[in-house]
Amino acid sequence: MKNFIIKIIALGIILLLSAFVADFVVTSGLKKTGNRESGGGDEFTTWNAICSSSINADIIVNGASRAYRQVNPFILDTMLNLNTYNIGMSGASFDQQYVRYLTFVKLNKKPKYIIQQVDYGSLFVSNSVDERFLPYLPYLDGKKYLAGITLSDSYIPFYRYRMRYDYITRGLLEFFHIKHYPNLRKKGFFETDLKWNGSSLNTVLQGDSINALKEIKAIELFDSYLNHCKNNDIMVILVFSPQYFKMTDFTKDKKDVIDIYRSFSEKYGIPFLDYSTDSMCYDTTYFFNAMHLNKTGEELFSTKLAHDIDSLKIIK
Fold this sequence. Notes:
Shape: globular
Strand order of the largest sheet: 2-1-3-5-7
Number of domains: 1
């Protein structure tokens, strides 16, 4: 019996050490990779910059894909004479954006301003695990806001990668220098040099109207976010960037959502720059799809945005 117990303990130690090694190898590999998906949807390089405490920015841009694809930090830098970094996260629900923000201010120099991209689809929270957070769990602040993240994910080595064979494979390939994906973003920004393609819009228009999202939990979390920024002396600028007008017209309850943003603007005394009916919204020259500006559009919009921010006289 004694020998049996010793063997069980030895096996347990071997398995635990193996799990630590596997976790280290896969995580290290994933942190070396760039962006596999078009536009940098994997998020590794932006997370790496945040978690390495290497961002020294006066302005950060927060939001989902309409943030990191449409607000050009280089144009803002030139026109506002400040340093800007875009931490927008592809497809991010607001709880995910909030965790991104909390982790940023925990690990990096506090920004003076935040350009917060908002739209008709911002005010929702995710109900499923977003695997892009997994390699960075030890660094995250506000993990309690993320769906599906358990104590086991945080403290049992390699458990967070269970059944995630794609991530395991990519981590191994990167760690052993077999395959590398380059970084597609610059200062967190991805430039999309594509012409208009309305096929996805046509598909959407054949269905039922889109409902603007206004989940109570997301609205409450957004309020907590703005309050956190106010208490940390960070000025938030709410920005609704242009989207193609046919998508706007097809959206229900859009006025309700705009009113929510206006109420937050009044409550916290912060600007709300609404470009949802800007002249750009009626010209496909500026878009590659109904929701996202192309290179021509983002350059024009970023220039317009920088000018409008400067005219607010809030930049010190």
